[in-house]
Structures
1.
Amino acid sequence: MTSEVSPALLVDLYELTMADAYRQEGIADRRATFSLFVRSLPPEWGYLVAAGLEDCLSWLQGLHFTPSDLAAIDQFKIFPPDFLDWLAKLRFTGSVRAVPEGSIVFAGEPLLEVEGPIAEAQLAETYLLNQMTLQTTLATEAARCRHAAQGRAVMDFALRRVPGTDAGMKLARCCRLVGLGGTSNVAGAVRYGLAPSGTMAHSFVQAHADEMDAFRAYAQVFKEATVLLVDTYDTPRGIERAIQVAGEMRAKGIELHGVRLDSGDLGPLAALARRRLDEAEFPAMTVFVSGGLDEYKIDDLVERQKAPIDGFGVGTSLGAAGGAPTLDSVYKLVNFDDRPVRKTSTGKATWPGAKQVWRRTDWTGDLMALAGETSPDDSYTALLEPVMHSGLPTSRGKRDLVEANTLFERQWLALPGPLKRLRTPALHSVEPSAALRRLTAAMDAGRPGAVEADPKSRPPS
Amino acid sequence: MTSEVSPALLVDLYELTMADAYRQEGIADRRATFSLFVRSLPPEWGYLVAAGLEDCLSWLQGLHFTPSDLAAIDQFKIFPPDFLDWLAKLRFTGSVRAVPEGSIVFAGEPLLEVEGPIAEAQLAETYLLNQMTLQTTLATEAARCRHAAQGRAVMDFALRRVPGTDAGMKLARCCRLVGLGGTSNVAGAVRYGLAPSGTMAHSFVQAHADEMDAFRAYAQVFKEATVLLVDTYDTPRGIERAIQVAGEMRAKGIELHGVRLDSGDLGPLAALARRRLDEAEFPAMTVFVSGGLDEYKIDDLVERQKAPIDGFGVGTSLGAAGGAPTLDSVYKLVNFDDRPVRKTSTGKATWPGAKQVWRRTDWTGDLMALAGETSPDDSYTALLEPVMHSGLPTSRGKRDLVEANTLFERQWLALPGPLKRLRTPALHSVEPSAALRRLTAAMDAGRPGAVEADPKSRPPS
């Protein structure tokens, strides 16, 4: 294994060049607000499950450049020595408001907003986007698989296919967040308190003289926990052999757990397995399937084929490596030096100002308002809450994964069915408040897209 | 940041359950060979660039379960105490043969083969697949972008969008491997010796009274290294302002580096920027573009539009998060207890036995042979070489990234153009040797798919 990366170096070079420019201009401490949001949802996605905040707050709280970090940056020969001195003292002293992890959010709504000295808040862009994008994608994809399975167990089998070990760990975390059934990832199960899940590989069957020997050997060791993989050579024959071994074990007072199918036409094969297990008087043995599954295939098996499947193991698709879409997430400056800012580039215009999102408690729509606005009326609740103040997490910034899961479960129960649909979901209404519209219009009427000219924000000449 | 993951726990649970079953059967030490390969290439990909071996060898060499790992596994209440004792003593004692990193390989060809006691070799499956799949995907995608750019610089701007920090680091590594121009990822530049790359963000322009102020402030600090981002408000106007600031700096004896376009119709805008820079007598200033690029868009700009672009910054697509396809990689048992093994599941059949790949030096085809076969004739060279022996890397297993890049450059130069094509590439011929075909036929004629029944491979009863 390569050694651990210094967290502070997980930044894009331009965060450093801008910080130095701000410093040399003498404006590095001017206050700024950045808003992190997803511009538009992938075509078939009706919602997002916000995730990643805990790692972002930890990164901000721990932000510092070590002597070896500074020596490495010095090697670039880009920066003057006084910038390195400045970096050595740098800590994150700003504040963060965010939607709690596990919250359901929609396009354009801030997942979090960072307020602080511009050089500090800018520096956080890369890591915050990296983690919020990754974890929100993984949590949403996992929630979609859970929805497709309609109460059947869904297990994370993706560690081998997820892009890298960080994504593998964060996937296990997100599976815990959205209440999936378990994970094959031992480290993920350990760290995030998810049930460990797994049975045997085809290689185990191949390493035995024949399939029966493999089944007997495995059942002998794992007894009631045994799930036999029946598709290594010929699935119908594998099912019969599993039934035979289950009978042998029953004679010893042991009831096997089930069978797993990992290839072929899963619906009919699951039906065959179910019928044969029932006929052989093993109605309690479960049928577990895996192999190239995603939310659409799970939905097809459950909803259209009514396949008698008890659980799904999902790999590639849950790992978001090609299965799930890329989120169009951005981290945009919305306030600088107490003035709202907006960008007007074609197709990339942003709403100005720090925001609050108000959600109607009956889920009929959200209102995107300026952060200073009060609740429109008591049919609304606010989504963003203070999670970090002057560089330290607030009590709300210390929610653990169990609390986040509880919050998710509550919102998941309330989330209207049309928004949960796997294809062509309903569009949730997110309206700007009157004040946000007025501010934007006033800015556009003045000097389009720019902060109003203001002598105090000019660089010293 | 969450604390470092214990590497040994980056396994799927079933690696542990199988290890315990093998142990209880008394066959955990029987020798096995597993072959890691990619079953088929993504539709538009003509080749793969092998990558990830260094991390795999490090993982194997460092493999051990710490007392806290064992305590965590014990919490699962799945395993008996003597299995934990066995795990505590476990080290990887096997051997690895592999194609060197940076090698061009094709579908079905082993990237690496692990030979050793079956429980050890099986345990490595998850981590090896995770890293080889990730890094081979990233290296290949980076090579495709390099090919599309036809000698122009390609920079990795993906850290914010790559799925997690491990993938971000490995991307920088793979960019170094295939000779890309630089990375925005500071940690990646530091660790892998890639040039750090980056300029300014839109937020920097927005944080100034107007665009001119921002350009002047940045140029004042970064002088000859300055690349001005000209699309925050209105690109043609941004280009004129960049020219004006370039003129002001020239009056001070400083020549700016260039401009960057990050939105809009990049081809015509680059042509406009080039024309205006030339007219204003800044022919040495470069035009750099970014924003939603992938190999196809780069190819369109370079090959079809002949856009006068000097460099490309690539984000999402290079990060493989939805941009690049998932590789259909597998880790299959091919030998057990000195006997070849193959799997015959529908659509998932594998060639038996440990392999060597022989490549014709004129790239007219590869021969997939059994590992014991000698060179067909001297027009062939062998691709797999011993990189680890009895748990320790050989001299060939200690190649560094610079050597791997040298090897890549040599193969890249030789790789025929039709295989490099971005769309509908030629199909490289990979033929099984006569001996491999004979072995497979003999196995199928005997007992389809299974190891021949052999009393010594039966579990003790």
2.
Amino acid sequence: MSVRRGGEEPAAFVTGVHVYFQDTDAGGIVYHARYLDFLERCRMDWLRSLGHPVRELEARHGVLFIVHAIGIDYLRPGRLEDALRVELGLERLGGASLELRQRVTRDGEVLVSAQVRLACVDAAGLRPARIPPALRERLGTHGRTRSGMTTTTTATTCPT
Amino acid sequence: MSVRRGGEEPAAFVTGVHVYFQDTDAGGIVYHARYLDFLERCRMDWLRSLGHPVRELEARHGVLFIVHAIGIDYLRPGRLEDALRVELGLERLGGASLELRQRVTRDGEVLVSAQVRLACVDAAGLRPARIPPALRERLGTHGRTRSGMTTTTTATTCPT
Amino acid sequence: MSVRRGGEEPAAFVTGVHVYFQDTDAGGIVYHARYLDFLERCRMDWLRSLGHPVRELEARHGVLFIVHAIGIDYLRPGRLEDALRVELGLERLGGASLELRQRVTRDGEVLVSAQVRLACVDAAGLRPARIPPALRERLGTHGRTRSGMTTTTTATTCPT
Amino acid sequence: MSVRRGGEEPAAFVTGVHVYFQDTDAGGIVYHARYLDFLERCRMDWLRSLGHPVRELEARHGVLFIVHAIGIDYLRPGRLEDALRVELGLERLGGASLELRQRVTRDGEVLVSAQVRLACVDAAGLRPARIPPALRERLGTHGRTRSGMTTTTTATTCPT
């Protein structure tokens, strides 16, 4: 695999986010936990873009994705009225879990970099559940289409 | 009824709230929508103090209280590390609704004053539902005990 | 003035909002305080659309808009993955204050209706301050353009 | 160092947190980003307990602590009306940074485990700044008192 530089790698999926007062704190910058909200918006937009909004995943397939682990690095502060990009790349596709690489950028600069592990669970009991085949197929295709790889375990699209 | 002055009326129920970074915005003050969270904490603590935490209301009685209307006045800004009091008084007890007077104070000064109308609904369909008798009894007693009134339609305990 | 029906009046300004998990609560619906966030996004987008993002208002003119009062009615619950419209109409333009009519709709149905009074204050001391003339001019024009009125005290564009 | 079991180690500092509707999402559990709020409340309570509330750190010393990195594992879901404990142990005390081990428990069960790196920065420019000596002294004492260690680089008090 060739070396890739962080700022230039095309992301698999991108959502725009604007910074409002509600996203900031008295330190004058974006409140650190708010980035997890931004990351979630991107993930939900991404699933919806694949034809599987979370409401459909629950109603039709009886499953939810819940966050199992997050590692997040805060590199630069976001500010009021910033126009941010939230990016997402699929790193690993397991039977009942996903690993994503996400980051938040502003004018090409990385503000936040995150690694997110999601678990697919049954909505009723929150026990591990297989990712629905219809979504799995899209995730594989999605990785392949975007990254040029031929396996469903795609390379990260947001390397740091 | 004798005239009562706003700052000195004992409230029917009081919850303490501390102001953290998460509650503030880049204006350096408590973010305005956060007060609705503070008011909710007080209402849930109050129901729990009456022996009816909302989880029990749903599990045993199949009802939820949802907010139907709020009128809120912002009088003075809250600040980081403030120790606030959130107060609540029952103003009106209907068959399937409640009206509360709430306010947030700091060292006796009123920061926020609010009027809140709650609707009791069935948890499944969110349609109007009778307030469970066991809770209703406590609400009547609660008003009576605290305000010296003998009807369940109690006087406000947080006049402005 | 002719009678206007609520659902059909064109709003002066509209922002789209999508409902994510972060916006909901365990009742399965949009958490009531979150609508205040949605309303704020619309107001900030509106000021930015007029050429006066809040960051510029503070940096150049030394003023902030803070919320003085909100009256909000919750008519129907919002749900996960809903695509909402947040609308805004200027009702009254004072020397150091604004009154807005806002509402949140889904497919033409009103979920939430609100009346919001903003105060213009100096950013340092939070004391009342005149609305900067450059913005005032835009607000007047804005009202005039949209509602066909010739005074800066425009009619509401979101009557209930 | 002897082996320690996760659930029984006394934490250096503990804050109680109650779960309200505002903390949950439509999945019926505590919204994942909310735990970062809980962790922050514990950190701010802890600094205040040491005689250095963040407001004083900024006003007197001109510094802020900002989050540089968080790694968080979600082990069990929190629920509405849960009474949670948020614990904190100092792991490493650097010149301009701190590393903390935090976790959220319910009846002795760990719901969330986190590693948090804080940077001390000057409040004006957000550049790295030395931890104020008065606080540093308390942090050293604090670690020593609680863990029986004699250096300021204390052992974790919340091992997993």
